[in-house]
């Protein structure tokens, strides 16, 4: 029969080891409880730790998308406000053109208006060439040869960039659509206030409107210029269309049917005057502004008086082209507003995804209410156990053989 002996030192070592283990467990429980985290290290729960890490990665991507969307939204907002400034400047330009057509102005006063019109034209060009915080043009004009993104042509122009992701909007507005998609005349045909046959501007005081299309097919079929020519027949002003032999008496304000279009001519034409009808062409906002300025500046007779016929015609045409330019700006401004609405919806979606992903992360690594209560209870139980173990060890440590014998 063998008798096992356990030395006092060995018992003390085992007791110390157990107490250290309990203290370590208590410290771990206190760390988790104070942080409110069920998983602090991957060793706590490998599956939950992996789920939480994936959730954090998704949160980083969502934050990145939101930052990109915020930057694009700021650019489009700036572009939309710039289009508002352009709209205001164009409206002011148009109002000055109406003033220029007033009969109470003489040519000297119109020359003063020309200075104002030129200043507004320069302002509009600056607005169109405005850049964002990164130094990139808001309307993406890239004509580096002239240093001005928007000269009077489309060379080097890049249209608005399309959406390139679920949470991205265009980071620029379409400058071509805003400034280079206008049409001369009524959009199908335009009318020049002179006879190509005579080769000189009209000498009378007649002017035409922009014309109203009555037969779109006939108007679209026009490929070469068609002329309305005037002659004086024994004191009666007559006109013919496209060099025809048939002449009709001219009536001030009467409508003339030409190539599927109804043209109204007002005023007093001179013999040899004419109006040439030709297909409309594409015109930029800047060309329209230049033509309007020229209409006010250049319609002066040799004696310094105003050539009212060509002036009135030029102003009529320019006002129409300015209205088209305003419509183009308003259209692109509306598209900018739509992009901002899209950005708002995308931001709401990102926020919802962030909340959902954050909830998944919390569920993976944090205590819920019930789990927190259990964790606190376990920690308190462990504290009691550690305290009891320490007190017991302190009491046993005092014992000796002499105390036992006595």
Description:
With 406 residues, this protein is an alpha+beta fold. The protein folds into 2 domains: 44-183 and 283-366, Up-down Bundle (f41 fragment of flagellin, N-terminal domain), CATH 1.20.1330; 185-280, no CATH class. Helix content is 54%, strand content 12%. The protein has helices at residues 8-35, 46-100, 107-128, 175-179, 216-220, 285-297, 308-365, 369-398, 401-405, and strands spanning 182-183, 189-192, 194-195, 200-201, 207-208, 212-213, 226-233, 236-241, 248-249, 255-258, 261-266, 274-279, 282-283. The strands form 4 sheets. It has a 5-stranded antiparallel beta sheet with strand order 2-12-7-8-9, with no helix packed on it. Helix 2 runs antiparallel to helix 3 (107-128), helix 2 packs antiparallel against helix 7 (308-365) and helix 3 runs antiparallel to helix 6 (285-297). The chain is rod-shaped. Mean pLDDT is 82; it is low at 142-147. InterPro entries: Flagell_FlgL, Flagellin, Flagellin_N. Keywords: Bacterial flagellum, Cell projection, Cilium, Flagellum. It is found in: Bacterial flagellum; Secreted. Belongs to the bacterial flagellin family. This is Flagellar hook-associated protein FlgL.
């Amino acid at each position: 029969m063998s008798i096992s002996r356990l030395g006092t030192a060995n018992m003390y070592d085992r007791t110390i080891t157990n107490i250290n283990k309990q203290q370590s467990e208590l410290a771990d429980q206190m760390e988790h409880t104070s942080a409110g985290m069920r998983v602090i290290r991957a060793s706590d729960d490998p599956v939950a730790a992996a789920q939480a890490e994936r959730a954090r990665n998704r949160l980083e991507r969502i934050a990145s998308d939101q930052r990109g969307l915020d930057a694009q939204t700021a650019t489009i907002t700036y572009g939309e406000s710039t289009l508002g400034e352009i709209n205001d400047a164009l409206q002011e330009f148009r109002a000055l053109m109406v003033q220029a057509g007033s009969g109470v102005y003489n040519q000297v006063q119109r020359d003063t208006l020309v200075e104002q019109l030129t200043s507004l034209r320069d302002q509009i060009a600056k607005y169109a060439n405005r850049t964002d915080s990164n130094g990139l043009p808001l309307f993406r004009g890239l004509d580096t040869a002239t240093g001005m993104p928007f000269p009077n042509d489309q060379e080097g122009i890049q249209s608005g960039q399309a959406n390139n992701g679920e949470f991205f909007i265009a980071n620029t507005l379409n400058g071509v659509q805003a400034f280079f998609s206008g049409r001369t005349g009524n959009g199908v045909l335009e009318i020049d206030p002179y006879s190509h046959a005579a080769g000189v501007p009209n000498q009378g005081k007649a002017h035409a409107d922009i014309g109203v299309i009555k037969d779109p097919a006939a108007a679209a079929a026009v490929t070469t210029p068609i002329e309305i020519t005037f002659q004086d027949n024994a004191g009666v002003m007559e006109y013919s269309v496209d060099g025809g032999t048939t002449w009709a008496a001219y009536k001030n304000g009467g409508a003339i049917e030409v190539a599927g279009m109804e043209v109204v001519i007002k005023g007093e034409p001179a013999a040899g005057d004419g109006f040439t009808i030709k297909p409309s062409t594409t015109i930029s906002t800047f060309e329209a502004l230049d033509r309007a300025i020229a209409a006010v500046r250049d319609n002066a007779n040799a004696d310094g008086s105003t050539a009212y016929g060509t002036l009135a015609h030029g102003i009529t045409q320019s006002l129409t082209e300015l209205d088209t330019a305003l419509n183009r700006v308003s259209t692109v401004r509306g598209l900018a507003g739509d992009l901002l609405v899209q950005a708002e919806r995308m931001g709401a979606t990102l926020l919802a995804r962030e909340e959902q992903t954050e909830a998944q992360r919390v569920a993976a690594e944090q205590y819920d209410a019930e789990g927190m209560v259990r964790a606190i209870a376990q920690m308190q139980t462990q504290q009691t156990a550690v305290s009891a173990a320490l007190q017991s060890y302190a009491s046993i440590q005092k014992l000796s053989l002499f105390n036992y014998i006595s």
